[in-house]
Amino acid sequence: MENEVEKVRTIAMDIVKQMVSVPENVNIATREDVDDEGNDVTILTITADPKDVGVLIGRKGENATAIRKVVGVIAFQLVNKRVYVQIDAPRKSYAV
After folding, report:
1. What is the fold, at CATH topology level, of the domain defined by 2-87?
2. pLDDT tens for residues 33-65?
3. Which residues contact 66 (CB under 8 A, 6 or more apart)?
């Protein structure tokens, strides 16, 4: 099972690296968790260069939704369990 999750992580990494301007700053961490219904899930957390986060999220979240759908379908085929994708976006603070 661990090997299949690593395949999903690698596929997600390949997709994301094609979208960003600084691919060497892309990292995807994996962790196991349990969803609200008690099912085991894997969570992939994508971190990238701050200037690339907007590209990963896209207008109205369209790119993020597409990444989640594609990775989710591939993961369900390989691992037969839910894999959720999160994009780690830096918080902006505004001085008043």
Report:
1. GMP Synthetase; Chain A, domain 3 (3.30.300)
2. 998 999 899 999 999 999 999 999 999 999 999
3. 58
